[in-house]
Amino acid sequence: MRGLRKLTSLFTKVPKNFARNSNSNATAAEKSTLVKGKSPSKKPQTLGGSKEIVNTHSIASVLICDGARNTDSLGFDSQDQDLQIPWGGIGEPTNLHYMQSRKVIARERKQKVVYKNTINRRFADIVNLCGDKLGADDTLNIFGKLGRDTGLKEYNACIEVCINSAKKSFDEEESLQRIYDAYQILRAMKEHGVQIKETTYGPLLRYFVETGMVEEFEFFSKFITEVNPGAFSRVGYYEMLLWTKVGNEDKVQELCNSIGVDNVGCELTENYLLALCERDRDEELVKLLSVIDVTKVSSQDYLSNIFESLGKRELKNFAEKFILALKASEATEEKLSHFIYSYAISIPVLVVEDAISEFEKLHEKFHVPPSSFSYEELFRYCCKFREVHAALDIVDKMDELGFPISLEKFHQLLDAVEESRELDLVRPVYSRICRHNSDPSSETFRRMINLLVRMKDFEGAYNMLSNMEEMGLRPTTVMYNAIMAGYFREASDFTTSFKRGCVHA
Questions:
Q1: Is 230 left (phi over 0), alpha (psi -120 to 50) or beta?
Q2: pLDDT tens digits for range 376-422
Q3: Confidence of residue 144 (pLDDT cuts 50, 70, 90)
Q4: Average of pLDDT values for 317-323?
Q5: Segment Disordered: which positions (predicted)?
Q6: What number of other Cβ atoms are within 10 A of residue 10's Cβ?
Q7: CB-side exposure of 393: number of CA atoms within 13 Å?
Q8: Is 398:372 a contact under the CB 8 Å cutoff?
Q9: What is the pLDDT of residue 461?
Q10: If 390 and its partner were Cys, which of 23, 259, 274, 382 is the partner (CB 3.0–4.6 Å)?
Q11: More confident: 272 or 104
Q12: How far apart are CA 394 and CA 96, in angstroms?
């Protein structure tokens, strides 16, 4: 790439501190790898760029809330004052004091839980906001000089700022500067002993894949695998994506031919396989399917992706072979049922009814009982394509097998009825709700009343109000208004039609 020389010239610059005053001088090995020619004569830069002084007004506009109050607004003067505390307020502890202290403790505990659950999202929002308002240079400069310890979420957020800035920039030199900043962050993580996981390097490598930056990808992948040898197999996934993206067939064949030699493990094979599934490379995919041991695939999600790819390509022989192998390896029936589902619904030439039939045939052939989870997924699949009759059949089968059906499932079914415009199916849905002993809520009745009104079954809609009262639910004003609005529309349509008939007569 033409920008490689510019990138390597950037790597020769000596940055200043990042996060806890880390020593960011490049090692001799890195310098020998990165330097090509003479170093530029520019002055050293900080990690965030060449700006040493950040515009404090811009920072304040981001980090300080509007309308912040000073101490005077709280009722204190600048001079010291005596606190007027009534002596009656200090006395023996009372029951009221005890109850108040318990409320304070409960409130503090709640605040800690909320803080713990939202800190990652809030920090990422702050970094992104600073990146939009101040730019990448000032943002990295600010967070690089924080007095707090820099953790994984801070590093990930800063790398995300670099990637977003590189994507938005139309200047090649500025994009290379952002890549250089990301490299400095990775080096800081290495020096501080923070493990570089896929959450950190994944977005960066995927950016190189999308832009076809081969030299940059090779440099960063080498650095990542040296720091974290366990990331070698996942880096192989991105490498296969890169070569298929840029159309380097020689490299693709080289990676495929390396399977089974050079101590290539199953994890690397499965990552090559996932990349080929994503890129729709059928020839290479079949080659790897012939040698992979599915019983050693590390993740259930990976196996689901493999079975989905088999369904898309209608490779039934491989699907049956893998099901038998997994069953022999004592895989759970629930997992096997899920893999069969993933295969059946991915077959492109099948309609919903045929996919359900294939789902049931494979379960019967391999003597695998369908799981509750697979039936729920099949139910959502039917509702997605508005196949209400098929969804009702799934509900009946789940009822026969004793599987639980939540009220939310029936709400999804009512939504499918409305979207498919088969409004008369609201009655079979209600009969299933009653038969399954599900306790319908006010929201359930509201949906059914609206559907009955749309099909002009006002008597049925009014009877729903009586059913609500029998179940201990109270009809709402919205329900009465829906029924009356339907009556008025029907009366208006009748009057209009009557007048038109009189005119023609």
A1: alpha
A2: 999 999 998 999 999 999 999 998 888 888 888 889 999 999 898 88
A3: low
A4: 92
A5: 22-49
A6: 21
A7: 12
A8: yes
A9: 84
A10: 382
A11: 272
A12: 57
Give CA–CA dist 167/144, Å, rounded.
22
**DSSP label of 90:** S
Query: Which DSSP letter does residue 323 get?
Result: H
Token look-up 């109050």 returns 69
Answer whether 34's CB lies under 8 Å from 216's CB. no
CA dihedral 311, 314, 320, 325 (to 10 degrees): -60
pLDDT for residue 484: 86
Torsion of CA 107, 113, 117, 118, to 10 degrees: 30
Q: Which residues contact 279 (CB under 8 A, 6 or more apart)?
A: 240, 241, 244, 245
Angle between helix axes 426-435 and 388-401 (nearest 10 degrees) is 10
Report how far residue 207's alpha carbon sits from residue 164's, in angstroms, rounded to the nearest whole number.
10
Q: Contact, 36 vs 8, CB < 8 A?
A: yes
Q: How confident is the model at residue 32 (pLDDT cuts 50, 70, 90)?
A: very low
CB 228 within 8 A of CB 195: yes
pLDDT bucket at 337, cuts 50 / 70 / 90? very high
**Predicted pLDDT of residue 482:** 84
Q: Is the pLDDT of residue 107 over 90?
A: no
Instruction: Give the contacts of 386 (CB within 8 A, at least 6 positions apart).
Output: 416, 419, 420
Contact, 411 vs 433, CB < 8 A? Answer: no
Q: How far is CA 386 from the centre of its chain?
A: 25
Q: With the CA atoms of 465, 468, 470 and 471 taken in that order, what torsion angle do they form, in degrees rounded to the nearest 10?
A: 180
Residue 103: CB atoms within 10 A of its CB come to 10
Angle at 249 between CA 243 and CA 254, to 5 degrees: 85
Distance, CA of 288 to chain centre: 29
Token pair of 238, please? 């991105």
- Kindly calculate the radius of gyration of the chain based on its CA atoms and give it in whole angstroms: 32
Give me 138's structure tokens: 């000032």
429: number of Cβ within 10 Å:
22
Residue 465 buriedness (CB in 10 A; 0-12 / 13-18 / 19+):
middle
Neighbouring C-alpha atoms within 13 Å toward the C-beta of 364: 6
Tokens (6 digits) for 146: 């924080």
Burial of residue 146 (number of CB atoms within 10 Å: 0-12, 13-18, 19+): exposed
Q: Which of 54-63, 122-131, 136-145, 238-247 has the highest mean pLDDT?
A: 238-247
Residue 157 has pLDDT above 60, yes or no: yes
Q: Give residue for tokens 């010239």.
A: 9
Crossing angle for the helix pair 442-454 and 407-420, to the nearest 10 degrees: 20
Distance (Å, rounded) from C-alpha 261 to C-alpha 16?
44
**Domains in the chain: boundaries:** 439-504
